[in-house]
Amino acid sequence: MNAPVSEKIRARLRAAGKRFHANDSIAEHIEPNELPLLQDEIEQKVLGVLQSLVIDTEGDHNTRGTARRIARMYLSEVFRGRYAPKPSVTEFPNVERLNELMIIGPITIRSACSHHLCPILGKLWIGVLPNEHTNLIGLSKYSRLADWVMSRPQIQEEAVTHLADLLQAAMNPDGLALVMEADHFCMQWRGVKDADSKMINSVMRGSFLKDPNLRTEFLSLLRDRRG
Fold this sequence. Notes:
This protein is α+β, with helices and mostly antiparallel strands. The chain contains nine helices and seven strands; from the N terminus they run ααααββββαβαβαβαα. α5 (about 140-150) packs antiparallel against α6 (about 155-170). The longest helix is centred in the first third of the chain and has 19 residues, at about 35-50. The chain is globular and about 60 Å long. It starts with a helix and ends with a helix.
C-alpha cells in the first residue's frame, strides 16, 4: 500500500534536516505532481472531521462539497505561502543614490493564528532608508513578499520579523522598519470575544533602531496616515 503523500513530503523534509513548522515554507520539498494528491488527502481528512462533528455531508446540500473547498482553500489560498515558492523579486541598483526615508503602505495583510487557525486581518507599513549600495525593489514586490509570508498559520510577532529578514536580505538598506496593526479573530470570534482589541507590533533595524529622530519621523508619519 502506498504511503500518503504527506508522509513522503514529511520524510523528505526530515532527511534534509528541514523544519516544517506552521509558518515555514516547504515548497522546495514538494514535487510538482504532489499538490493535487495532497489536496485529495486533506479533503478526506477534513471530511472525517466534519463527520465527527455529526454534520451530514451527504444530505446537507450546503456542506456536500465543503471538505473539497476547504482543502483547496488551505493549499491554494489562505496557507499558500507554505506550498508556493517565493515570488521573484527584481532588484534595481540605486543609481540616483537615494538616501531619504521611503514609506510603503498600508499593505493589506491576511493571515491565520496558528493556535486556532482563526483569521488575522490587518495593515502593514514598511519604512526604508536606502544607501547608495541598496538594491531597490518595485512597489508591488513589497505586497507580494508580504502576502507570501503572511499566507501561513503563525503568530503576528514572528510573521513581521520573518518579513523584515527577507527585505533586509534583498535590499540591504541602512534602515528598515515594519509596523503591523491587526484584528485577531481568535479573540473576537472565541474566548473573550472582544471585538475592539487590536495588536500592533514593530520591527526596527539599522538606522531606525539607532537614530531616535528617524524613528520618530517614521512613526509620526504613520500616525498621521492612520488618523
